[in-house]
Write a structure and sequence with these properties.
94 residues; mainly beta; three-stranded mixed beta sheet; two-stranded antiparallel sheet; 9 strands; 0% helix
């Protein structure tokens, strides 16, 4: 199984975001109550692998229609800043 790509990340201040692309090798989504990117953090320098596009390694949102066995099955996800966090906009409740 291939991990889904982070197709778009609109959270420019994230340490892994460069030009709306996530460069973390794998992110974790969710804290069991909110579909947020747990990998998101702010740092003065950019990190990750600039030649790679981020993937969803794990998803804790068991109530999402894309979640099977705590793994995301969406073809790709979009992450954007909502309120005070970087949220997965692809989250769709069952």
């Amino acid at each position: 199984m291939d991990m889904p790509q982070v197709s778009v990340c609109e959270v420019a201040e994230c340490a892994y975001n460069e030009d709306s692309a996530c460069h973390a090798l794998a992110i974790t989504v969710g804290d069991a109550t909110r579909a947020q990117c747990d990998t998101y953090f702010v740092h003065p320098t950019k990190g990750g692998d600039a030649s790679a596009l981020g993937r969803v390694g794990a998803c804790k949102m068991s109530g999402c229609m894309h979640n099977v066995g705590l793994e995301c099955q969406a073809p790709g996800i979009t992450v954007a800043a909502l309120q005070d966090a970087a949220d997965c906009l692809t989250f769709t409740a069952r």
